[in-house]
Design goal:
This protein is of the alpha/beta class. The chain has helices at residues 4-14, 54-68, 114-127, 144-147, 188-201, 220-228, 242-257, 288-296, 308-316, 320-323, 328-342; strands spanning 32-38, 41-48, 75-82, 99-107, 132-136, 155-156, 161-162, 164-166, 169-173, 207-213, 233-238, 262-272, 300-306. Helix 5 packs parallel to helix 6 and helix 7 packs parallel to helix 8 (288-296). It is globular and about 70 Å long. The structure holds adenosine-5'-diphosphate and magnesium ion.
Length: 351
Amino acid sequence: MTNPSARDAVLQALGTVRDPDRGTDIVRSNAVRELRVEDGKVRFLLALPKTSTPEAAACRAEAERAAMGVASIASVEVKLVNAPPEQAGMPGKRPIPGARHVIAVSSGKGGVGKSTVCVNLACAVQALGYRTGVLDGDIYGPNVPLMLGVRGRPEGSSERLFPFVSHGIQVMSMGMLVPEDQPMIWRGPMLNKAVQQFMFQVDWHDLDFLFVDMPPGTGDVQLTLTQNTDITGAVVVTTPQEVAVQDVRKAIRMFEKIEVPILGIVENMAWFQPPGSNERYEIFGSGGGARIEAEFGTPLIGQIPIGIPVREGGDSGMPITLSDPSGPIATAFLETARAMLARIPTAAATR
Ligand SMILES: Nc1ncnc2c1ncn2[C@@H]1O[C@H](COP(=O)(O)OP(=O)(O)O)[C@@H](O)[C@H]1O
Ligand SMILES: [Mg+2]
């Protein structure tokens, strides 16, 4: 079994090892590839521009030592591979054609409302006058098409896929690569390659903001998505209780490590206010976003209440921000969108 916390610990340890050629550590420089942490065994490729030098051998030895230093790790297997010259130097983060800003919407764990927030933020930012799109990168749980009322297969060729347009929002899902009702069985390198390709083959049309619904957690796919793409910033979604907040800490550390700025935390399901009542019930506790803000200095940019129509909107393909644009939940999403835009120095300039 893959143990996510062991994986985090290994990544953190490898982050202390200097890349001999690229003036940074081997995680930041993207030299660590195809990392597997299973049953106390670590395996990865160490991709360096020069593999036969004493420096490369020393780097490999140091990487092995660092990984072995992690508590639950019993064996480490590192294979030195030659990085193609164009991948040498700082990791190549490529812009996504057709999208001025890419926003990664992420969460420490599933079920906190990441997809709901992603889709409604895209609607809210559109309502503020920007052209928006949503890429569903949650390969194992692609919900964006349902939430935005998109069905069927995308048109295009294997090199160029045309996004759907729903409610004026351009939409593409990685889930559309596999037939419905069929579990995704891709693993490791094959999946990473598909994700990378997919990121750059969608024919986005003149977007101000592309929101990417990231897979939950801090695994391979997240790294692949974020290490290769020029991302403006990340929005991290959580719920108020401590168990959710714990996972958010990991997500924040991952983004720090790969130098993606965090635009802010959105606390979803912050409270429930019955219609017609002034009473607020904090069903999942309170203060999660504020704790993260205090701990990391990452601002809490929004609090979204629980609302039955939020779930209904998700199931019917008509997000609450569009169906009830002046209601309390849409207002919360619009405020969140404004706070997010304020954290992007150049956002105003794109209008
Ligand atoms: N603020 C909210 N109020 C009510 N239901 C919500 C809210 N946020 C999310 N949900 C519902 O909770 C479920 C999980 O949300 P989802 O966005 O799919 O989570 P994730 O993408 O993090 O797994 C969905 O049925 C969604 O409609
Ligand atoms: Mg989801």
